[in-house]
Every structure is written in C-alpha cells, then in structure tokens.
Amino acid sequence: MERRSFLRTAVVGGTAAAALGAVGTGGSAAGAFGGSLWRGAAAAGTARPGRGPYGAPLAADARGIALPPGFTSRVIARSGERVDGTSYAWHSAPDGGACFADGTGWIYVSNSEISPSGGASAVAFDGSGAITGAYRILSDTRQNCAGGSTPWNTWLSCEEVSRGYVYETDPRGVRPAVRRDAMGRFKHEAAAADPVRQAVYLTEDERDGCLYRFVPAEWGSLASGTLQVLTAGEADSGPFTWTDVPDPAAAEKRTREQVPGAKRFSGGEGCHYADDSVWFTTKGDDRVWRLDLGSDTYELAYDESAISGGGPLTGVDNITGGASGDLYVAEDGGTMEICVITPEGEVAPFLRIDGQSDSEITGPAFSPDGGRLYFSSQRGTSGADSGGITYEVAGPFRKRGGAPARNWVSSLSLPPAPRL
What we know:
2% helix, disordered N terminus, PhoX, Translocation protein TolB
C-alpha cells in the first residue's frame, strides 16, 4: 500500500477487550477496563502525550525492535522462507492478522496483500509459544489487506480491490474458505464483529468511502443478510443511522454511491469493536473515529489537522485492543512505531522498528492470554513485498487495573470447529 500521511499526536478514545469467543480484529480475549473510563476521558477532552504504561522504548535489539524494559522480541516468519520447524514458506507482504485460541495453544493468521495470488496463511503455537505448524488457509484471491475475526472462530479476509469480496476462512486450514457475497462488493479493508447487536462492521479503503454494517439473517452464519451503510450529516460528530444498501453486488452502481446521505470517510483502515464502541481509522485525513453504539452517535477521537506541533504517533493504520482496554495503533511509514493509547488519556510509543523506513507495520494482534503481541513489517529491510517479516513481542502487558497478563491458555478446551 502507499505510504500514509503523518499522524502527529493522539487523543483519548478506546475500548475494552472483547469477551472470550468474541474477539474483534486482533483483539485479546482477556479481561478489560470498563467502558466508563474511556467515556469519562473522552468527555474531558483529554489529549496528552506521555510515557505510557511501560515507559519509553530502549535501544533496538538484535532484530531492530526497540522495546520497553521487560519485553523481548523474536522473528516468527520471513516472506519466501520456511517457517521454523515447518516446510511452509511464508507469504509475501503480510498484512492484517488475528489470533485464535486452539486447545492449549493458539493460531496467528495473516493476510497477503499481493495480487493476483493474495490469500492468507497461519502459524500455530503450543501452550509454551513454540511453533507447531504453518500452512495456507486461503488462496487465489487478490490483495488481501485487513479483515477481522468472528465469535465463531473464523477469519474474515478482505480484498482491497474495486468490487472486492470478503472470504470466511478456517484458521486451522481444515475447512475450505467460503466467499461471502452478501457482505457486498467494494474495496474492503477491515471487519469487526459485534456479538451484542449481532452485526459485522466493515471499512472501505476509498477516498470517498463509507462505513458499512452487515446484519446476518442468522447470527453465526454469513451466508445471507442485509448490508447497510452509515448515514449522517457532514459534521465530524453527531447522530447516525443505518440504511439498507439496495444492491450489495454493485451490478449497476458502486456500493458507496447507492444511498443518498451516506457518510464519507477518507480511506477507511483498521476497525476494532469492544464495549459498545467501534473504533476505526482513516488514512486519507489521519483520523481516528468512534461510534458510540449505545447512543447511536459518532465522534472524532483524533484529528491531525486540529493539532499544532508534533506528537508520538506519526501514522494511522491498523488498530487493535489489549486486555487492559488500551488501544494499539500501528503506523504505516511515519517512524515505524506501534503506539499505545490508554483509557486514562495518555498516548506513547510502545515499540519501534529501526532500519525499515520503506515499510509499514501491519496485523497487530494479541495472543489469547494477552501476553504476546504479533505484527509484521510488510516490506521489511528490503522495501519489497518479498521482504516481509512477522514478529512476536512477549512481556508484561497489563490487564485489568494495570496488572500484567497471566497465562490461562492451558485451561482452555478446544473450541468447536468453525461454521463455514
């Protein structure tokens, strides 16, 4: 993807982690702060750079990752090379990702943003974090950028092309992927499932794109349902409604052009749901937006154009939530950082990748216990799609009330097979 514009500061806004079995895009299934903290901070208009919960990153390690004290990194996979201990060669241009609990271990899935082959792959881990396998879960698609997980343990892989599709995939790679036509044809970016309202929110990577909601006919199946678009005024905050899209297949008119009054967003990117809020980013104007689903209102959580001077966050792209309610925002370009925005209204760099200025950070997602963060440098040190590197960072990520995450993965039973 093209290098993003700079995002020069941060504001408060956020979400708690999704409940177990209902993880949003790359979200953690561990405990979370209550949404009242976020709402209180947002109402106060707080926007302050600070040290964050972990302090400033130290000097870069041997892998070029600058981390706070107590955290370590390792390389999980490199594009074109076999994943350690497996015969599987990792895909090029790794992008959006998510983690899924799997018995005593977990699976990290990752899209491939290349065309025409695209698709997605997965790496499996045991309860200690050792790699146990790697494999393809989706093939023969185009420019698979972001996506999102579902409460029934499937990965939604989205095509970021004109008239693109959403593909529902099995993280274990056992069941074949299924194209979900009812979710519409447009330049898909990210998806976030809302188990409370039984809907999936979808961003659109167009300069005049929209935000959509897909309401399945039956929760747990995406085979049929209603695609809706957010309609609102031209202001940057206010009430919104959902309006049905007449022709999701866009046979005669582009999806985003079918409904008068559809709210325009400049280049929709990451999307994350939790605690009655949807957070999504727009790269064209370096903004972070929040939908308050309890009041049916939307607001700007961050607006680069309203900030004088610089801040710690210099790019806006993928977004996910930690077990503490913190938001983690990955930079596309900028200073190649993942920044953390806390419910208390503090924003700070969490990590930085050195020596990879021609790349972008993609696919941040937490392991189910909240103790490991996975992400990729899409083009690595080479600046080419074939140079992608996927990393893991482990350490004392905080949970509810600031306590470090604990490992409860070993107590999980194997979840049921995905319904595709």
